[in-house]
Amino acid sequence: MDKKKGYIKKEDRKTILLLCDDIRMHSGIATMAREFVIGTAHRFNWINLGAAINHPEVGKNLDLSVDINKNIGIEDSSVIVIPNNGYGDTQMIRNLMGIRKPDAIFIFTDPRYWVWLFEIEREIRSKIPIVWLNIWDDYPAPKYNEDYYNSVDGLMAISKQTLNINKLVLGDKAENKVLSYIPHGINDKTFFPIKSDHKLYDDFLKFKTDLFNGKDYKFVVYFNSRNIHRKRPGDTILAFRHFCDLIGKEAARECALVMHTQVSDGNGTDLRAVKEALTDPDYVNIYFSNDKLTPQQMNLLYNVADLTLLLSSNEGWGLSLTESMMTSTMISANVTGGMQDQMRFEDENGDWIDFDADFPSNHRGTYTKCGKWAIPIFPTNISLAGSPSTPYIFDDRCSPEDASKAILSAYELGKEERDKRGQAGRDWATGKEAGFTSQAMSDKIGDVIDKTLDNFEPRAAYEIHKVGPLKSKYVEHKLLNY
What we know:
With 482 residues, this protein is of the alpha/beta class. It has helices at residues 28-40, 65-72, 90-100, 115-118, 121-125, 146-150, 160-170, 201-211, 233-247, 249-252, 271-278, 295-304, 319-326, 339-343, 400-413, 415-430, 438-455; strands at 14-21, 44-52, 62-63, 79-85, 104-108, 130-134, 154-157, 178-181, 219-224, 255-260, 286-289, 307-310, 330-334, 374-377, 381-385, 393-397.
């Protein structure tokens, strides 16, 4: 059997203990983790302490190796899932380190879930390194995360903004970390365009007919995200209603909005009530899709769409945009967080923008030229939100009226031009510059793990510090005029 590039025999591989959602689940964290575990199973042995709320399989040890072998074409992968209620605790990690003897711990999600782990980081890092695939939604640079960033050996940032935040918060200490930009990657064999000559075209037509109960719409807007406040699902409905008013009732009857989300959620709102109160069913067509779909069905749903819309006021990445690009479907999004990366804003030299202390974000519209597959919507209100554990973070809100104009721009392009621009998005996303594929993501993660292991120096049991003035928590980057 042919071995994958970089293949290492099972007995010679390093073992990585992965702390995140159960990789068999369908959350964004689980989806990405599954992709890079599969993509690096020829280089590392993986143990996933698989988190879920009230996990039904707690107490089991599940070996996924046979299925992984079939997927990647080797015979000796080792991928174990240990289902758990939540992300773990100190005693559980100590037990796993003693019994499973991992060579590194890999964490993936918000730092608030790992406070208990950071509290014993010296104990852990006296033996093995910790690497963290991390994200932060917005500025000002979160000085309150400094201790967390200092508690790991490798920081992989999923957005250019997050990488800059890591550097700004760490300061000189960044030199002692392995820092790398590793954007989310989508399996381009799972998400792809389906045109009239594709073997799945008949399946696509049936799916579309069933979705719309036999109606044929000329223009479809798609929302695929959680029904939570920061995703702005209510604004999405309002923006679509405004768009329908802009083009008139007769044309609007040939358009539809599809929202793949929970219709009612305590962390968001009751979208059916919003629809009933703010839209006239005579000419505003809104469809809710809340069934769990397979990746193959999700691919069909993206292919139904002419435009994927995401108005989040805080967004670390925006996975639905990447999936949309892979299907050659245009995107329109609020300019914030990692969504900026996917729109590929370019500077005065035509280069893909990067961030620093003088230019930490493009949410104020410093640069407006972007990839032809994207229609940006710039925030009209940037306000400071926060909580006791996260005292400050910008909330970047765009207006539904501006979003409606973005929808109109896509609508007026016509199908042929939208298809061309969507294909340009896929070409860029799968290309070398962006590297938004699961394989590119996996290769980069594997390289960072190797580099972290190679550079790792066990921490001493204790350190002696001279007591002095506390370090200032002042944010030393521009907040305006960028």
